[in-house]
Amino acid sequence: MKAIGVDLGGTNIKAAVVDKEQGIIDQVTRPTKASLGKDLLLDRIGETISDLIKDHDIIGVGLGLPGMVSKDQTTVKNPPNLPGWTVVNAAEEITKRTSLPCRIENDANVAALGSLHFGAGKQFDSFIMITLGTGVGGGIIYERKLFKGTQGMAAELGHVIIDYHGPLSNSVTRGTVEAYLGQRFLSRFASDLISQNPSNPLYKSFSDDFDKLEPVDLTNAAKKGNELAIEILAKSGHRLGYAIINYVHMMDIRKFVVSGGVSKAGDFLFEPAREVIRKQMMEPFQEGFELVAENLGNDSALLGAAGLAFDSFS
Amino acid sequence: MKAIGVDLGGTNIKAAVVDKEQGIIDQVTRPTKASLGKDLLLDRIGETISDLIKDHDIIGVGLGLPGMVSKDQTTVKNPPNLPGWTVVNAAEEITKRTSLPCRIENDANVAALGSLHFGAGKQFDSFIMITLGTGVGGGIIYERKLFKGTQGMAAELGHVIIDYHGPLSNSVTRGTVEAYLGQRFLSRFASDLISQNPSNPLYKSFSDDFDKLEPVDLTNAAKKGNELAIEILAKSGHRLGYAIINYVHMMDIRKFVVSGGVSKAGDFLFEPAREVIRKQMMEPFQEGFELVAENLGNDSALLGAAGLAFDSFS
User: What single string gives the DSSP state of each residue in chain A?
Assistant: First the structure.
């Protein structure tokens, strides 16, 4: 069984033919050119799909994009980086152009579906995917289906509060986990601490311009035994742990898959998270708890978008 | 259609014949006598039910009790206040004694079912019930069914963290909403502030023994215009608001029904909660948000237990 997965980003449209067993078997990338407007962009997506399907028997299209997606997985509202898109039934527009059934879903949920169909989540019936990137996002898989909530907007995991006195992230909410683990916030937190430690090798590397410091630099330093880097990642891991306790106490889902750039810190982040969880999560929830890394990498969006089509049309 | 609802507490067994339209039509209360042991207690419950069903056509039994209940709603684990109960398939035991099918559920989830079938929750397909009592508990109704999570333990709402630096409640977790809004914690928080304000009327009433101060005293003082009492309830309401933001951002359920002794503070608590929510909950979740009080009172447990039977056997 084959489906088309499309990953619509601000820079590129990626599309792939995905086989349910073999994964990606054919793939194209085109620049998005979002500035040309909504209709031309939809045309470009349609043409990209039409080129790909020529040699294949395809059951349908799944499309991942930024923004809030309706519960019926057809309509997106105010997607960032796509000028002129206010409320668009993108599924219908794609079907008009390709004669294939289509469902759409936001990036974070698509990543969770990628994990469910092809990644670390394959082994779990229910799990929560946490994406630690520029922002902190997520998707909830409950009994092998996306949990969408009443209006389709569930799993704003990055905007769960762990300290109501805490700093703002890019949202209106104080002290959310994104305000600590979003890439920019983590980098800023690290820069603050490093700037007070002139003898630390990271000070020497970044004191000219702390804005260049990224989480990967912390991970690399931690691997070399830099104790300040280890401490910064550990504190961040603790905060991830508090957020995970909230998710578990709320929904009793005990499997976690973590992806995204910041997650590359691996056990420098995860072990401190597990430590907080062992200590502060209620005892009855400890049984069966697991926190694992996703390793699908960049293909995750295409695979998840195809997974959406498999779930919807097979 | 009629079912039996049973409310098994540490002090009393209450049982009622409940009509789906008319509510409670017949009711008995007996002392629990839990110290006599598990088997005799189950016998007493069985006899209580058998007495009630004589004149009625009954579809089944729903039983509410403290403790963690299995996902299939048959088995309870280590219920507090019931000595000798470790892991008990109470549903099976009741069926043996009454020849009626039976399901069990924990108190907090039963309260949510009571609201769904007979109370303020009747108007909502999905809502979260928050019980502000000695502890803070809750139940999640999603698409007119209890959301139980993977192992049946979802909705530990009182143990959701809002400040990871915060105080412990009776759990292992720091800074949970229960550590602020559980009756004892709210009273302690109030006593601390009142003890610093000797000119306040509440100081005069309680300085002999602050342990006697209860949330209802704050509400009564607030109604008389006591500004310190109003401030204490407002701060507590803000904390309730942060917890609710977490529930909404996580599950996209936007209707809240609040019950329990502390909720009698009404808008002294709810308006400050709504204020925090208007300000700090993400904009797309604001539409349709509602926070209302439950007014079923003490009947809620019996009605909810019967609701469990209606859901299970009709």
Answer: -EEEEEEE-SSEEEEEEEETTTEEEEEEEEE--GGG-HHHHHHHHHHHHHHHHTTS-EEEEEEEESSEE-TTSSEEES-TT-TT-SEEEHHHHHHHHHSS-EEEEEHHHHHHHHHHHHSGGGG-SSEEEEEESSSEEEEEEETTEE---SSS----GGG-BSBTTS-B-SSS-BSBTHHHHSHHHHHHHHHHHHHT-TTSHHHHHHTT-GGG--HHHHHHHHHTT-HHHHHHHHHHHHHHHHHHHHHHHHH---EEEEESGGGGGTHHHHHHHHHHHHHHS-GGGTTT-EEEE---GGGHHHHHHHHHHHHHH-
